[in-house]
Amino acid sequence: MNVTIWNENLHEQKSEKVRELHPKGIHGTIAAILEEEGHVCTLATLDMEEHGLTEEVLANTDVLLWWGHIGHRLVSDEIVERVYNRVQEGMGLIVLHSGHHSKIFKKLMGTTCNLKWRHGARERIWTIKPSHPIAAGVEDGFLLECEEMYGEAFDIPNPEDVIFMGWFNGGEVFRSGCTWTRGNGKIFYFQPGHETDSAYKNPNVRQIIKNTVKWACPTVRGAIPVMKFEPLEK
């Protein structure tokens, strides 16, 4: 598949710790996971022309992964609209970690996507829908020793499926892996992936990311049309 990985690429410019953890950027770390499956990965960042998400790039993208945090407001509304239309036409969208506050995710959800948060928590992620394709090969419950806590209430429309539930050592819980459909496009939100933590080294997290790309690959392409329709029965 043709996969595009978008990352604002701002933390990498500011933090030595992030550069050590992701020497090729967070987008490079994610690309390395997906290249193990043989996918063709295109990397796009905020500072590129049209944020790297040109009409041509998006036309050739089966699934787009989105990582953003401190640069949400810097993303052009024109590019957000472009991505939004491609999702409606069938492109898969995987929104990672702090991408919950991205313009594109909030536009697709139609809510604030607000949540509770704090730094430096221990998280156990439970697989609560093991029959779902995104959960294939994932343990029933796995541990992340350090991850940013995201807690309920999470202001999102009711997901079609909640596949993973996170529990943190402060007692908080969070819907860590959720799916939706918009138009012909499939959307998955996945919570782990704080820039200074090592979630993307965890074998279960890596397997989930691989599974999501397979799941979100378009099965139908093209926007749902508005059309006059003649009755089938005379």
Report on the structure:
This protein has 234 residues and is α/β, with parallel strands linked by helices. Helix content is 25%, strand content 29%. It contains 7 helices and 9 strands. It has helices spanning 11-14, 16-21, 25-35, 55-59, 77-88, 103-109, 203-216, and strands at 2-7, 40-45, 63-67, 92-96, 116-127, 141-151, 161-168, 173-182, 185-190. The protein has a 9-stranded mixed beta sheet. Helix 5 crosses helix 6 (103-109). The longest helix is centred in the C-terminal third of the chain and has 14 residues, at 203-216. The protein is globular and about 65 Å long. 42% of the residues are buried. The model has no long low-confidence stretch (mean pLDDT 96).
Beta-strand portion reads 25-35%
Give the neighbour order of strands across the main sheet.
2-1-3-4-9-8-7-5-6
Helix content: 25-40%
How many strands in all?
Answer: 9
Q: List low-confidence stretches.
A: none
Count of separate DSSP helical elements: 7
Summing up helix and strand content along with how strands pair, one would put the structural category as alpha/beta
Order of helices and strands: EHHHEHEHEHEEEEEH
> Whole-number average pLDDT?
96
Largest sheet: 9 strands, mixed
Report Rg: 18 Å
Q: What general form does the structure show? A: globular
Question: How far is the first residue's CA from the last residue's CA?
Answer: 44 Å
